[in-house]
């Protein structure tokens, strides 16, 4: 679980009043932040880089504490930066936590789950031990599988400095075919079925992504499968136009 470090932890644990008026929108913003690639990716990269230090044993080494402090500092800095992006001060966030969470039990649970538990060293150690074990399992699984031509080509390209290679990706939907398009498209317009949607304020994370259009009118649900012959980080954004079908980009 990714959670907030000591500064924000103290904000949630014991706060002194403030002006929370006009910050009702902050609930949705915080939820979107905690699920966004800009939040998840740096924390995942940290865990990937340092989980190898942690062993599943009772002994707690000094380097564990140093790593824990660095992680808490990273989480604090990330969260405070996201607040400053929307001109919310730490004092306003404290006031919001004190006065704005009473009627939002779900958000309160999310904050406690994701922003407080990292302050506990044993929770952090358990997370890193599990992360390291998961990486080991994935590596062992990849070694046990026969290498197909596309994977071999990608591996050879990775060994050559400055080289790159395109590998085939397939995308399937249980209710029909899908079509592909590379972002950004001409004049920021994506043709989808019988309408043209213009996307505004597209986040940087979407730039360069592969977009797809699939059946959604008669069959609004189904199983979507992304198949890659090599390991890849996948960030998924989906359109949630609602009954008005007016378009929109959502994570």
TrEMBL record:
Keyword Cytoplasm: yes
Residue ranges of domain BART in the record: 24-136
Gene3D superfamilies: ADP-ribosylation factor-like 2-binding protein, domain
A Pfam short name: ARL2_Bind_BART
Protein's cellular compartments: Cell projection, Cilium; Cytoplasm
Any Gene Ontology CC annotation: axoneme
Keyword Cytoplasm: yes
InterPro entries in alphabetical order: BART_dom (IPR023379), BART_sf (IPR042541), CFAP36 (IPR038888)
Ranges annotated as spanning the membrane: none
Keywords: Cell projection, Cilium, Coiled coil, Cytoplasm
Domain of life: Eukaryota
Family in the record: Belongs to the CFAP36 family.
PANTHER family on file: CILIA- AND FLAGELLA-ASSOCIATED PROTEIN 36 (PTHR21532:SF0), PHOSPHODIESTERASE HL (PTHR21532)
The protein's name in its UniProt record: Cilia- and flagella-associated protein 36
Source organism of this protein record: Alexandrium catenella
């Amino acid at each position: 679980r990714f959670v907030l470090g000591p500064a924000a932890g103290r904000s949630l644990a014991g706060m002194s009043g403030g002006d929370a008026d006009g910050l009702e929108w902050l609930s949705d913003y915080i939820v979107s932040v905690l699920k966004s690639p800009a939040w998840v990716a740096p924390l995942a990269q940290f865990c990937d880089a340092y989980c190898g230090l942690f062993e599943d044993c009772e002994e707690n080494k000094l380097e564990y504490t140093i790593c824990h402090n660095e992680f808490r500092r990273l989480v604090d800095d990330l969260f405070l930066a996201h607040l400053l992006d929307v001109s919310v001060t730490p004092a306003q966030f404290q006031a919001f936590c004190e006065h704005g969470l009473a009627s939002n039990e779900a958000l309160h649970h999310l904050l406690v789950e994701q922003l407080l538990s990292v302050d506990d060293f044993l929770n952090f150690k358990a997370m890193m031990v599990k992360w390291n074990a998961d990486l080991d399992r994935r590596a062992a699984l990849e070694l046990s599988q026969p290498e197909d031509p596309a994977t071999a080509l990608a591996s050879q390209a990775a060994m050559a400095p400055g080289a790159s290679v395109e590998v085939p990706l397939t995308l399937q939907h249980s209710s029909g075919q899908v079509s592909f398009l590379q972002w950004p498209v001409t004049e920021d317009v994506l043709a989808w079925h019988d309408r043209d949607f213009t996307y505004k304020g597209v986040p940087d994370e979407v730039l360069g992504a592969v977009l797809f259009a699939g059946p959604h009118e008669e069959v609004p649900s189904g199983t979507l499968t992304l198949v890659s012959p090599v390991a890849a980080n996948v960030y998924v954004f989906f359109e949630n136009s609602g009954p008005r079908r007016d378009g929109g980009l959502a994570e």
